[in-house]
Amino acid sequence: MRNIGVLAHVDAGKTSITEKILFLAGLRNREGRVDEGTTMTDYLSVEKRHGITIKSAAVRFTWKNTAIHLIDTPGHVDFGIEVERALRILDGAVIALCAVSGVQARTEVIVKACIARSLPRLYFINKMDRSGADFNGVVENLAADLEPRAAAIQYPIYEGREWKGVYDLIAEEPCFLDGPDEGSPMYDFQPTPEIQAHRDRLVEKIAEGDEQIFALYAQDEEIPRILLNEALARAVKTGRLIPVLCGSAFADSTIALLLNHIVSLLPSPAEAAVPENLKGENPEAQTLRPGDERLSAFVFKTLGDGLGDVVAWTRIWTGVLKAGKKYFDARSGKDVLVKNIFGILADQLINLESAGAGEVVALRASRLEPGASLCQRGQPVLFEILETPESVVSQVIEPSSAQEMSGLRKALETLAVEDGSLEVSEERETGRFIICGQGELHLDIIAERLKREYGLSVRVGNPKINCKERPLAKAQVRERFDRDFGGERVRTEVEVRLEPKANGELLLQVAESLRVPAHYLALWWILSLPLPVLARTENWR
Fold first, then answer.
1. Does 354 lie in the same domain as 226?
2. What pLDDT is recorded for position 254?
3. Within this chain, do residues 482 and 455 fall inside the same structural domain, yes or no?
4. What angle do CA 120, 124, 128 make, to 5 degrees?
5. 485 or 7, which is more confident
6. Residues 303 and 318: beta-carbon distance below 8 Å
7. 456 and 481 inside one domain
8. What is the rounded distance in angstroms from the CA atom of residue 359 to the CA atom of residue 340?
9. Beta strand spans in 228-309 (E)
């Protein structure tokens, strides 16, 4: 079994990767497309309309005889709480990067969160079929800015300037998008000196921290591929190496290879660390280990079921949960009757009698809140609390008529149960509600869901900013752009300096050195921003 999440900056192709995975795993007869609104994991009408993920979606499938629970998470910062809560229950992560845009602002936040939790992860450089894809540049930036232990385990294959496939540096085998024609230079492919150099570097990195591989490497002996794979898996699970793959969400062969590496490199629940138990009656109760028979389960997300109960997404760390039984919630100090247990398949629920360690399931109960720690009475297990981010923007919302007041109140209560970053308060004297969230898009989506999903006619006020960022330190970055567009060479260089002033104002200086017509300046800004140095979180409050 594997419990993984797919994480990315918005528009890196994360949902397209997930949809291709589901197609290859046999869950769908036809792969879903974001642009067509046919995705399985983006099932809300607002997600289909906007083409972005708003809520995390869970699916389960089998690949190479291995059960996989996959969480597809939002990429937009306004829905970051979905990512933070998913990270609490994952054993591994796939972080998608765009081969053109590379490391982006949201990527940095995601990676730091993974590092803080020592979460084993691998990178998939997506969109290798796009013009301007730069595998080497993305890997170099990733290693320089975020992941010094990043190691490419695949390398792109080109015929001229056309991307043809990937070369597996461990197996020493090419994988083509389409089978090469006989007589083509690709037909009898031999690795280029550049590919061979990358393989040599990879083997050296693996050998540096593995005694068995180092002994063979030092003697200049041939290292069996199976031993290299096993050593790489050990390095990934301990965080010593972070593998980097590449491909396209629209290329079956590269996503199949990604799935193979998820199974072979990322840890199973039996290998992953169980979170610390913060509550126990004796020292023995403080430590949980994989395979422990006593129950420990963590609720990380809740949804309303429309019938007065909640559906609680839950990760079982140890033990077994059974439907129709009562369990103790160490967070609230109350007993909870688990009425039903379901396997999660996007917006579908599959009825289960029981679920065991490692599974991600949905529980129907009368009361459960995110952060609940389920266990047996007398064997208390309490996991780390879920943090709720401070709201940054607020907005007045009110019904168009008095008849819709109770419907609006109930709908907002339901949405607040589903979304931990949404705060709702009511002004009973005026009949208005104040909703607070993580950004204007967040609140726009709430208003749209009220209209589309609940059939309510509402009026909204102008957003009011509750929290503004300000720079704490100077930052300076110089970026150079040099690329061919339609046969015309575009070269430009921009330096940006940001400095806080004593009166709280912001000084922003931009100096550009243009060697092209001025109308390319807008193009430069679109392609280069957000600038990574200026986006570093430690520079802001």
1. no
2. 94
3. no
4. 170
5. 7
6. no
7. no
8. 15
9. 242-246, 296-304
SS3 270: coil
Q: Count Cβ atoms below 10 Å from residue 159 Cβ, excluding itself.
A: 14
Residues 302/420, Cβ–Cβ less than 8 Å: no
Q: Is the pLDDT of residue 517 over 70?
A: no
pLDDT of residue 135 exceeding 50, the answer is yes
Q: What is the pLDDT of residues 165-174, one digit of tens each?
A: 999 999 999 9
**If you average pLDDT over residues 29-52, what whole number do you get?**
88
Q: pLDDT confidence of 264, banded at 50, 70, 90?
A: very high
**Highest-confidence range of 20-24, 26-30, 275-279, 458-462, by mean pLDDT?**
20-24
C-alpha closest to that of 69 among 314, 265, 374: 314
Burial class of 435 by CB neighbour count within 10 A (0 to 12, 13 to 18, 19+): buried
Do residues 489 and 449 share a domain? Answer: no
Quick one: tokens of 106? 């949201």
**In terms of domains, do 112 and 14 share one?**
yes
Check residue 477 and give its pLDDT.
80
Return the amino acid letter for 144: A
- Note the pLDDT tens digit of each residue in 311-362: 999 999 999 999 999 999 999 999 999 999 999 999 999 999 999 999 999 9
Of 57, 117, 92, 85, nearest to 372 (Cα)?
Answer: 85
- Per-residue pLDDT band at 222 (split at 50, 70, 90): confident
Given a cut of 80, whether residue 520 has pLDDT beyond it is no
What does the block give as tokens for 294?
Answer: 């006593």
User: Does any domain span residue 190?
Assistant: yes
Domain span holding position 79: 2-265
Spatial distance between the Cα atoms of 20 and 432, rounded to a whole number of angstroms: 44
Distance CA 437, CA 419 (A): 10
- Structural domain total, the chain: 4
- DSSP-derived secondary structure for 404-470: GHHHHHHHHHHHHHH-TT-EEEEETTTTEEEEEESSHHHHHHHHHHHHHTT---EEE---EE-----
- Predicted confidence at residue 532, as pLDDT, reads 45
Say which residues have a Cβ less than 8 Å from residue 433's Cβ, sequence separation at least 6: 396, 397, 398, 408, 409, 412, 424, 425, 426, 427
163 with 68, same domain: the answer is yes
Can you give the three-state secondary structure of 376-412, one letter per residue?
ECCECCCCCCCCCCCCCEEEEEEECCHHHHHHHHHHH
Length of the chain: 541
Angle at alpha carbon of residue 437, lines to 98 and 9, rounded to 5° = 5
pLDDT at 236: 96
Residue 388 counted as domain residue: no
Residues 152 and 223 in one domain: yes
Identify whether residues 363 and 414 lie together within a single domain: no
